[in-house]
Structures are given as structure tokens and as C-alpha cells.
Automatic annotation (TrEMBL):
GO molecular function: D-lactate dehydrogenase (NAD+) activity; NAD binding
Location of the D-isomer specific 2-hydroxyacid dehydrogenase NAD-binding domain: 113-300
Pfam families assigned to the protein according to its UniProt record, in alphabetical order: 2-Hacid_dh, 2-Hacid_dh_C
UniProt similarity note: Belongs to the D-isomer specific 2-hydroxyacid dehydrogenase family.
Taxonomic lineage of the native organism: Bacteria, Pseudomonadati, Pseudomonadota, Gammaproteobacteria, Thiotrichales
Domain of life: Bacteria
Domain D-isomer specific 2-hydroxyacid dehydrogenase catalytic: 8-331
SUPFAM superfamilies xrefs: Formate/glycerate dehydrogenase catalytic domain-like, NAD(P)-binding Rossmann-fold domains
Organism: Methylophaga lonarensis MPL
Protein name: D-lactate dehydrogenase
Gene3D superfamilies: NAD(P)-binding Rossmann-like Domain (3.40.50.720)
Keywords: NAD, Oxidoreductase
Database matches in CDD domains: LDH_like_2
Length: 337
């Protein structure tokens, strides 16, 4: 039998390790590291041909140069987004990159709707009150989704599942997605431009990738064009929204509800236990003080089904790399810029 391939797995939590070890083939040795991948820790993968990383790892040019110098030829992202990978540098250094394009779009779509429902019915406040023996309904007044307008930015796999579910609630569904019009129209959504979507929606939910074009899509100007009392949901990527603009919108009571599973500076906070520390990020802490804001720590994807799928897809891509087969989930740099 050929020598097994060592794989350095960064940002590996116990649950990642469990699912990856269960999926691994005999030709693989998984070395799971708790630390994140960055220019410093990249040296840990010296001599390792395949590296696996996650959403908040820093795969900048410096990291990739260290990896390439150590012999790394494949990076297997255990996530869909790859905005944290310098694809130009990877291509120049001869490192191939694969991702997991869709682990469980259902998981993310269902979490998105959980945030909407929890916000609309003030569930966090209701939960705390009942535990405290307070059964007053003051401040818990909700609203029906029926006949509300939901605006979906990004009509891809997750956005379309959210739309389908909101249609079942009796909502009108608007979609803004310049690259995916036909399939959205076929599903009964009204495809509109960005300005119309933000002006007409009672609930706006983000499901597009983070690109230079979509960074800070939700900013001061966009918020000013929304309906007063709008509900904003982001389970996509933090930097799609300007958090300072969100804070002013919440303080002026222009934004009625905010549900986020992602945060632009989440890299230094999420996926770790900081409960024994003082959190220094004042913007984040201020966000968590509003009664009409729910923040979850990038857990939308976190279901049994998704973790199994992430592990299986990652292992299949590494196996294809070992066999010299086509890498069906390879991500390439955009040569157009
Ligand atoms: P997808 O690729 O199927 O859909 C993305 C859609 O966004 C595409 O239809 C594309 O045409 C559209 N799009 C691209 N640029 C746009 C723009 N400028 N304006 C409007 N639409 C635009 O991706 P999928 O699977 O639906 O995932 C969406 C996002 O969800 C991912 O990019 C990722 O950032 C995020 N995600 C978050 C997770 C979490 O746990 N919170 C887990 C998985 C994904």
C-alpha cells in the first residue's frame, strides 16, 4: 500500500475531528490542530501536502507562501465561502483549493427562519421573563408574517430555500440577484432591483457571497431607504453589513429587528469560549445590549447532517487529489479580476 497522506486540519474542534476521522480513508492520516491557520501557524504544516481550513482562518499570501515552501499542494476548505483565501497567490504558488459548495443549505435556511421567528415574537425576552416568574405580555407584542414582504438578497441555494419557506407563510417574496434571475422567477419570487427590494421589504435577509461588490451592501444609505421598523437578517458573511450603520439604525429605532449569525470582526470572537474574559470589541458588545437584536455565533450550518456532509466532501476531494482525479469542487481565481 502507498504511504498514507498526512493532512493538517486547522481550526479543528472536537466535533470536526469526530466527523473527519469517521470519514477518512486508510490512505489518510488526519493531524487535527485546534489553532487557526495564519502566517505564524502555517509552519506547523511543514512537509504536509494537504491542509484543511475553515471560515476564519487567514489564508493570505504570507500564509500560502509558507505552506507552499513546506510542500503543501492542496487546501481543502471545510466551508462554502473562500473570501479568506488569496486565490491569486494560491494559483501562483501552485496550490489548488477546494471547498464544500453546499453542506446543508437546509440548515442555514432553517436557522435564518428561526432568527426571524424568534425576533418577531420576542422569544429571548419571553423565555427570560417566564423563568423569572414574570408573565406580563408588555413589550412582547409580535407581528404576523402572513402577507408581509420578504426581500432576499442572493437567490442561490440558501436564498431560494428561505424564499420557498416564506411563501408557505403567505409572504410575498422579492429577490435581488443579478446572476440568477430565471430560476428565482420559476419559484414564484418577484425578481427586482436592489433599491426596490430594500424599499418594499418588511424583512430583508442576506444570502449572497462576500465579494468586493457586496462588501457593506447594507450601509447608512441603504438603511435610510428601508421601511421604518424593518427586520434585517444576515446568516451569510458579516462584512455584507456595516456594523456601525446597524448601530445607528438601531439607536434611532429605524431598524426594528436585527438577527445575525455572522459579524464582520467575528474572527477574534466566534467558535471560542470567551466567558472568562472581558470582551474588548465595544461595537459587538453594544450590539448585544439591544432587546430587539439576536446574535448567534456562526452556528447556522451546525447540524449533524451538515457536519457529516462537510467531512465526506472534504475527504472525497482529498482522495481525488491523492488519486490524481478531477477535483470537482476546485475553486479558481477569477481571471477577469
Ligand atoms: P450560492 O452560491 O448558491 O448563492 C449565492 C447567490 O448570491 C447566487 O445566486 C449569486 O448569483 C448571488 N449573488 C452573487 N453576487 C451577488 C450580488 N452582488 N447581489 C446579489 N446576489 C448576488 O450560495 P449559498 O449556498 O446559497 O450560500 C450563500 C452564502 O451563505 C455563502 O456565500 C456563505 O457566505 C453563506 N453561508 C453561511 C453559513 C453559516 O453557517 N452562517 C453556512 C454556509 C454558507
Amino acid at each position: 500500500m502507498a504511504k498514507p497522506l498526512h493532512i493538517a486540519v486547522f481550526s479543528a474542534k472536537p466535533y470536526d475531528e469526530k466527523f473527519l476521522l469517521a470519514a477518512a480513508t486508510e490512505s489518510m492520516v488526519m493531524c487535527c490542530y485546534k489553532v487557526d491557520l495564519n502566517p505564524m501557524t502555517a509552519t506547523m504544516a511543514h512537509g504536509v501536502e494537504a491542509v484543511s481550513a475553515f471560515v476564519n482562518d487567514d489564508l493570505c499570501r504570507a500564509t500560502l507562501e509558507t505552506l507552499a515552501a513546506g510542500g503543501t499542494r492542496l487546501i481543502a476548505m471545510r466551508c462554502a465561502g473562500y473570501n479568506n483565501v488569496d486565490l491569486n497567490a494560491a494559483a501562483e504558488l501552485g496550490i489548488r483549493v477546494v471547498n464544500v459548495p453546499a453542506y446543508s443549505p437546509y440548515a442555514v435556511a432553517e436557522h435564518t427562519i428561526s432568527l426571524m421567528l424568534a425576533l418577531s415574537r420576542n422569544l429571548p425576552r419571553a423565555f427570560n421573563r417566564v423563568r423569572d416568574g414574570n408573565f406580563s405580555l408588555d413589550g412582547l407584542l409580535g407581528f404576523d408574517f402572513y402577507q408581509k414582504t420578504v426581500g432576499i438578497i442572493g437567490g442561490g441555494k440558501i436564498g431560494r430555500l428561505v424564499g420557498e419557506r416564506m411563501l408557505a407563510f403567505g409572504c410575498k417574496v422579492l429577490v435581488f440577484d443579478p446572476y440568477n434571475v430565471e430560476v428565482c422567477e420559476q419559484m414564484g419570487f418577484e425578481v427586482v432591483d436592489f433599491d426596490r427590494l430594500i424599499a418594499d421589504s418588511d424583512i430583508i435577509t442576506l444570502h449572497c457571497p462576500l465579494t468586493p461588490e457586496t462588501r457593506y451592501l447594507i450601509n447608512h444609505d441603504a438603511i435610510a431607504k428601508m421601511k421604518r421598523g424593518v427586520m434585517l437578517i444576515n446568516t451569510s458573511r458579516g462584512a455584507l453589513m456595516n456594523t456601525r450603520a446597524l448601530l445607528s439604525g438601531l439607536k434611532s429605532e429605524y431598524i426594528g429587528y436585527l438577527g445575525i449569525d455572522v459579524y464582520e470582526q467575528e474572527g477574534s470572537l466566534f467558535f471560542e469560549d470567551h466567558s472568562n474574559e472581558i470582551i474588548k470589541d465595544d461595537i459587538f458588545v453594544r450590539l448585544t445590549t439591544f432587546p430587539n437584536v439576536i446574535v448567534t455565533g456562526h452556528q447556522a450550518y451546525f447540524t449533524h447532517e451538515a457536519l457529516r456532509h462537510i467531512a465526506d466532501t472534504t475527504v472525497n476531494s482529498i482522495d481525488a487529489f491523492i488519486q490524481g482525479d478531477e477535483l470537482i469542487h476546485e475553486v479558481r481565481r477569477n481571471l477577469a479580476g
